[in-house]
Amino acid sequence: MHIRTEDLSSIEIEFDSGVVPPPYSHIFKLKINFSVKALETSLDLIYTDREELTEEEIFDEGFSLDDDFHFNGDISKIWEKPLKELYTASKWTNKSLDDEGGINLSLKDRQGKSSLVIPQNQQEWQILAQDLIQAIYETSKKELPLSLRYLIKTKTEETMIELTMKFSIRKVEIKINGKITEGAWDKTKDLLSYVFLPDYDYSKAKQQVPNHNGIFIDCGDGYWHELGKGVVNIDNSFDAVSKIKDGFQKLL
Are residues 128 and 19 in the same domain? Predict the structure, then answer.
């Protein structure tokens, strides 16, 4: 049964990572109730199959022994529009999810009628779900907003771009040499998708702000990497480093 967007009272996004190996394999249920002032939200995120691994193997991958996360509370109503827009634009499939995993949606309308659907546009729903989870992390103070620094140094001038993604309120703050402006959310998300594609060589990274000419980036952990030297493309068929340079240049 299809539920009209305007009749939606709640959406539950259920995800299974499928054949992804531990410690990365996980499931989550993200339920959102549409209310007048906020989105009443619950999240249960559980990592799976870790009994197969030693503690050392889990730590080596950057995880802890207790990475599960649970949340009940409100997130900003600003997320209602993109969520309903994606629902409206989506098409559904009759095929069940296979071993690759994915997302299904449990829907409920204002009269209490329910429906279970599987979107064809799985990637779009997974991206939005991750954005919503990041908003929850910020709202619950589990994590701070993502902040990047980008530095262009030449013989004649220096430009520092500081980029802060505030998922809790779906806003981008751009600071260029101390002057703050608001950025476009979707365009900045596109830029971020390129930032984390290359290989970052931490043996060449510095914790001090670079004092020689070049283009540098700090991805939020305090380490400065030089593009083209400490930041290199993994896939020769796609020049992510150039995409990063172009994206930050457009912010100017």
Answer: yes
Domain range for residue 233?
146-251
Q: Which of 31, 116, 113, 32 is nearest to 78 (CA)?
A: 32
Other Cβ atoms less than 10 A from the Cβ of 43: the count is 22
pTM equals 0.91
Which among 235, 187, 195 has a CA at the least distance from the CA of 216? 195
pLDDT tens, position by position, 152-189: 999 999 999 999 999 999 999 999 999 999 999 999 99
Residue 178 shares a structural domain with residue 210:
yes
Whether residues 113 and 165 fall in one domain: no
Say yes or no to pLDDT of 1 above 80: no
Residues 124 and 160 in one domain: no
User: What number of residues does the chain have?
Assistant: 252
pLDDT tens-digit map of 72-97: 999 999 999 999 999 999 999 989 99
Closest among 148, 152, 128, 161 to 200, alpha carbons compared:
148
Note whether 241 and 153 are same-domain residues.
yes
Q: Tell me how many domains the chain contains.
A: 2
Task: Look at residues 245, 240, 252, 203 and name the one whose alpha carbon lies nearest to residue 223.
Answer: 203
